[in-house]
TrEMBL record:
SUPFAM superfamilies: DHS-like NAD/FAD-binding domain (SSF52467). The keyword Oxidoreductase does not apply. The chain crosses the membrane at residues 16-36. Residues 266-478 form the NAD(+) hydrolase ThsA Sir2/TIR-associating SLOG domain. This is SIR2 family protein. It holds the Pfam family SIR2_2. It comes from Sphingobium fluviale. Keywords: Membrane, Transmembrane, Transmembrane helix. InterPro entries: DHS-like_NAD/FAD-binding_dom, ThsA_STALD.
Length: 483
């Protein structure tokens, strides 16, 4: 049975992301899961030189401070960080999913480059802010921002690790604090990889507590309670469990809703559910129709425009490859809906990836088009197919657009819900015929297509644009409820 807090997280956090006010805080547990050492492991060698076992000391910042005092500099501590954190471990799946979500702000106390590498793997820009001076730099348009509030592996002379670094944080890195507090007051923050044994988390929680008193905003923390197999003795397990329960309750003071998991392997699936729920609010209208193809253009344009308006009226986001006639018509309808409601939030709600067209006589860049189709399918959770025709240069006549069929394949590969409007002909009709009676689920939580009855109705030759909109609206409502 799914816990109430998990249900709450899967409902409220995707809504925050869709609304543009979802943020993420990446804790040490994420880096440890990727293969990087914990604080205690990182400073084991340093402690041994001082005659102190790091496992016996909970104030690891003090251990680093003592090493600096004994050696006269932070060189040894920095060399240990460089050796242990400077290597590149595989990016965990949880961060790969985060890199695909509409997150604009990410915070971390980790030094490694896992987040930057995750964003780089999907060619998504991210600005790294690891020092106070970086805050003054102009943001890259369209880029997310990563705030490394305790520094980064690339700038070891400016990392926060010793007691003195924490004591002087406000004077040296204090510019981070009002920004973090602003995000905590206006956004819903998801905390990943945090635990009550992480010394950095105590620092961050104290900042939250400074900002809010009786009514902090709602944030979420995915945490794993201690498990019996983690400890050698029953007594140690019981002690850790008690501490964890008290800590989890205490997190409520900071506005954190605790989402408990039994195993860290559950985190990617939770985030995939978030991704699916965000994607379900994004509808890709795929299709094309050559202007030279005769009288049918008016009907195809009218249907595409009506569907685009429906998406806007429902408060959903439009994804478009700007295909001939269908793309421009759906965008026109979408803009009309936004204009009527007084909302011009185009930067967030209209996601367009126009396909670069070659000059006459030149071949298109097929690899680029394939990549664009895969990206559009990844972004969207629902794909509506309208028309899908093109002019055959050799015969100077209209034929089914193979590109739209390729988009159907991309949509299936990305597990999108597909809605072909067969009555508009072309590729949409072919897709509709292939789905009727197919083994692809049409009902339940795993449904990826309309029912046979709905597909047959959408393919009816005399169905009106108004009837299409009513039926598509019903299908979209069902998808929302499923999500």
């Amino acid at each position: 049975m799914v816990a109430a807090t998990t249900k709450r997280f899967l409902k409220d956090y995707p809504e925050a992301l869709i609304g543009g006010f979802g943020a993420v805080f990446v804790g040490a547990g994420v880096s440890m899961g990727a293969g990087y050492p914990s604080w205690a492991s990182l400073l084991t060698e340093v402690g041994e030189e001082l005659g102190v076992q790091s496992g016996e000391l909970h104030d690891l910042a003090a251990l680093a401070q003592w090493s600096i005092q004994e050696n006269g500099s932070a060189t040894q501590v920095r060399n240990v960080i460089k050796e242990k954190i400077g290597v590149e471990h595989p990016v965990p799946e949880s961060l790969e999913i985060i890199s695909r979500l509409p997150v604009k702000f990410i915070w971390t106390t980790n030094y490694d480059r896992l987040v930057e590498r995750a964003f780089g793997s999907v060619n998504r820009p991210i600005d790294t802010v690891s020092g106070a001076a970086d805050l003054a730099l102009r943001a890259t348009p369209g880029a997310s921002r990563l705030f490394k509030m305790h520094g980064s592996i690339e700038r070891l002379d400016d990392v926060v690790i010793s007691t003195e670094d924490y004591e002087l944080y406000r004077s040296k890195r204090g510019a981070f604090l009002p920004l973090l507090q602003a995000h905590l007051s206006s956004m819903s923050m998801l905390f990943l990889g945090i635990s009550f044994t992480d010394p950095n988390i105590r620092h961050v929680l104290s900042l939250i507590r400074e900002s809010f008193t009786s009514a902090p905003p709602e944030h979420f923390a995915i945490v794993r309670p201690p498990q019996r197999e983690d400890y050698k003795t029953e007594a140690e397990f019981e002690a850790r469990s008690t501490q964890h329960k008290l800590w989890s309750r205490d997190l409520k003071r900071y506005g954190l809703v605790v989402v408990e998991i039994d195993d860290y392997a559950e985190v990617p699936e939770l985030l995939r559910q978030v991704e699916r729920r965000v994607a379900a609010r994004r509808v890709w209208v795929s299709g094309s129709w050559p202007p030279e193809a005769g009288d049918d253009i008016a009907r195809v344009y009218g249907v595409a425009q009506a569907v685009g308006k429906l998406i806007g009226d429902r408060g959903q986001d439009l994804v478009s490859g700007a295909g001939l006639v269908v793309g421009s018509a759906s965008i026109a309808g979408f803009l009309d809906a936004l204009r009527s409601s007084g909302g011009w939030d185009l930067e967030r709600r209209l996601i367009a990836r126009p396909f670069p067209q070659p000059i006459p006589g030149a071949a298109p860049d097929r690899a680029q088009w394939t990549a664009l189709r895969a990206e559009l399918a990844r972004i969207a959770g629902v794909v509506v197919f309208i028309g899908g025709m093109k002019i055959d240069p050799g015969a100077d006549s209209a034929i089914v657009a193979g590109g739209v069929l390729d988009e159907f394949k991309a949509a299936k590969a990305a597990d999108c819900f597909v809605i072909p409007i067969g009555s508009t002909g072309g590729a949409a009709a072919q897709i509709s015929d292939s789905l009727i009676g197919s083994t692809i689920d049409a009902t339940g939580r795993s449904a990826m297509r309309p029912t046979d009855e709905e597909l047959t109705e959408l393919a009816r030759a005399d169905i009106s644009a108004a009837e299409i909109v009513k039926l598509v609206s019903s299908i979209l409502t069902r998808i929302d409820k499923r999500a």
